[in-house]
Amino acid sequence: MAEELSLLTPDQIAEVLGAQTEEELDALWRSWHFHARPEQLAPIGLWTWWVIVTGRGWGKNRTGAEWVIDRCEQFAAAGVAHLVGLIGQNNDDVKALQIGGVSGLREVVRRRGHRWIGADSTLEPKVGIMRDDGTEHVSVFEVHTAVEPEGPRGRNFHTLWCDELAAYKHKVDAVGNTVFTNAELALRGQCPDGMVPQGVVTTTPKPVPVIRDLLAGKHGTTHVTRGSMLDNRTNLPMAFLTSVLGKYEGTRLAAQEIHGEVVDSVEGALWDMDLIQNGRRSIDQLPALSRIVVGVDPSGSDNRDECGIVVVGLQADRDARGLQHVWVLDDLSVANRPEVWSLVVIEAYRKWQADCVVAEVNFGAAMVVDVIALQDRTVPVEEVRASRGKRVRAEPVAMLYDRARDGHRAHHVGVFPQLEEQMCFWTPLDPASPDRMDALVWGVSFLIPELAIPPADYAKGLAEQRI
Fold first, then answer.
1. In this predicted model, what pLDDT tens digit does every residue of 158-175 receive, in sequence order?
2. Which H or E run contains 202?
3. Same domain flag for 288 and 247
4. What is the pTM of this model?
5. Are residues 282 and 241 in the same domain?
6. Are residues 74 and 220 in the same domain?
7. Which domain holds residue 118?
8. Do 126 and 139 meet the contact criterion of CB atoms below 8 Å apart?
9. Could you tell me which of 440, 384, 455, 439 has the C-alpha nearest to residue 410?
10. Band of the pLDDT at 410, cuts 50, 70, 90?
């Protein structure tokens, strides 16, 4: 409605607004129904999940925050206790994206004239809403994160908001549940008449299992909203749109990040998501490992370039065919300076009780060894050098994922969205360096040295093994 009003002539706008009282104008300005596009308003019905999968800049955060406060107002009107779960990758994301900023909960509460209870620096917010009878009704928020999956266990949520679910690095609890699994099982609070427990997911798409399942309706009654950045173009600077579209339009990145499409893979990539998914296992399926290494593809600059850090293990026992399996245990890649990522490498080495760090040293020569030794001289570093191109090095590793060849011999323990995205989308034409994928390749190739030979010879060797 706000956009339609803006398209009128100044005289027409004056006529429309002049017919309203000050109280009506104030209520109109505070109303989300006045500002929202139709697709940003909650679907009618008693669905369980509203899944908003769109490109960046569509208005996901504002939509999620407004919907949550709508629910707070409804519970206040009914005088029923209201527990809201805010779920993010970590506490910083929840504070910066769901609570803070011009589109977050705190600003929505301010615009609507309600009371935000709790200091801005805390993660214990509440919202006080004045009822018609003059009493205040308080909705309580709980913050939970992907790194602490057991947090929602035992709760009774009425409302959930999961932001950027596709980007979660899902840790699992002792029985294999993620924070989303436990939160969904806790979405069971008693609601006012005519309402049911409901949750909203706001995310840029990635072809990870939980998003695939939500889009396929495997989590109860689900309403899916899809959209592009261009849907919100009237609220975005034209210079920004021109720059972004000029640079990315027509690419896989544009399809996913701008237009909100779920892209499983691209032509020329060595992996697709089905290959990874079919070999995926949970932590309770992890067998005994004979060796564990931390693969490192270093960043040598101070410009916050990404350093690939991937932990990989070699299964102790061979399978019935006498073949070895590798297990991808963690992706700890970080964009930061060497003195920062070296500490992450050392922490990974200690946490997983690894045998060594395997680091590519073409770039920066002895820099990797030196920067790790500066922090801890007891950490052994095995140096590897790239003598062939990225694709040629990665092809034998990709074969481990291909069931058509030998059965699944590579297993991801959990979900690693950014690593898997690089694996499924990188091609030699991509100018970006796939640091996470490279770290995986270094680690796996070190554990199974025969993978370092050319792909044709590797395939020949497998055939000879079968014979």
1. 999 999 999 888 777 777
2. strand 198-203
3. no
4. 0.74
5. no
6. yes
7. 31-258
8. yes
9. 440
10. very high
